[in-house]
Amino acid sequence: MAKQVVGLKIGASRLTAACLEVNGSAELVQLAASALPTGVIAGGEVRDVPALAEALKEFFKRHKLPKRNVRVGVANNRIGVRTIDVSGIDDEKQLANAVRFRAQEALPIPIDEAVLDFHVLSEGAGPDGEPTRRVLLVVAYRDLIAAYMEACRLAGLRLAGVDLEAFALLRALTPSVPQPEGGERSALVAVSIGAERSVLAVSDGWSCEFTRVLQWGGNSLTVAVGRALELEIGDAERVKIELALQGDTVPEGLAPAQAVQAREALVTTLQGFGRELVSSLQFYQGQPDSLGIREVVIAGGTARLAGLAQELQRLVGVPVRVGDPAGAVSLGRKLKGDPPDPSHAVPIGLGMAL
After folding, report:
1. Which of 79, 92, 106, 337 is the most buried (most CB within 10 A)?
2. Which residues, other chains included, contact 4 with Cβ-Cβ below 8 Å and sequence gap of 6+?
């Protein structure tokens, strides 16, 4: 029988959920989103557990979302991801011990302060016939994960798991970027641009090879517009959305000269993000066995800003397009909520995990 799974993204300013029915394939049946008070989440960590619990309780009640089989996403630079090779072990218990030992060498997190998980990507045999396994290793600080789990418990939610937003992002966007037949393999680069931060993930088409959380989000563009035109944040956000990054649109209430000034502020501010992306991609390509980059796929709420993909393409130097998470799932005939858009990529990917 189909199982309902709720993918839950807890951002700095919004709660976003996707309810899917999973039974071999995934069918999207509901999408929901609500604002989250400022300060509850900061830097990808829970700052106020009771406030988050209350917000989650109200969110699930208002949208009549299932409270069972909830998968929550996390994104933080206090989470380490590595791919390691383990040889000479075929016993599962011994493998777990070996991975735990290797984690102390591979990741800069004290094991006694961490939670660890791993997934075997592939199995084979070495030159002498001994078994070898390629393992994806994830380690996170225990207190970081515990805060999310406690807030969900207080809200009456039953967690099916805690997942990395980077993994969910790739899960939702990988199907829309097939590798060309007979061509050279290339990496899928996906970037979810949130309000405060952005999640970058690189996949070889099978697994996540590299991920990083960038301390830059759409709020940086809003602040830039506000400073340029001396506007309050709410008004600056409206102008940003109406203005777009390309073209000559003049938002209501602005003079043409002000529109030019605000657009210049947007472009200038985006250059900092472009530099961070380039630096991260250069770091990835400096790793052994890294692949060439064919394109960058962007998602998240900020990805809906008109002209963003084109401007990032100019800054990064590789093709950039807006991702469509609807391509990874089938849409229910009676889909509740708004149609899926780039802001739903992470919650949809979280829901696809079961």
Report:
1. 79
2. 19, 20, 21, 22, 29, 66, 68, 69
Edge to edge, what strands does the sheet with 330-336 contain? 159-164, 70-74, 3-10, 14-23, 25-35, 330-336
Question: Rounded to whole angstroms, what are the CA distances from 133 to 84, 138, 322, 348?
Answer: 8, 16, 35, 30
In whole angstroms, what is the distance from residue 11 CA to residue 299 CA?
A: 14
Cα–Cα separations (whole angstroms), residue 317 to 146, 214, 281, 300:
40, 19, 11, 21
| DSSP designation for 39 | T
87 close to 98: Cβ distance less than 8 angstroms = no
- Taking residue 36's Cβ as centre, other Cβ atoms within 10 Å add up to 21
Nearest to 201 by CA among 160, 172, 178: 172
Strand, coil or helix: what is 354? coil
Residues 106, 138 contacting (CB under 8 angstroms): no
Per-residue pLDDT reduced to its tens digit, 222-276: 999 999 999 999 999 999 999 888 778 888 889 999 999 999 999 999 999 999 9
Report H helices in 4-120.
49-63, 92-106
Euclidean distance between CA atoms 45 and 181, whole angstroms: 42
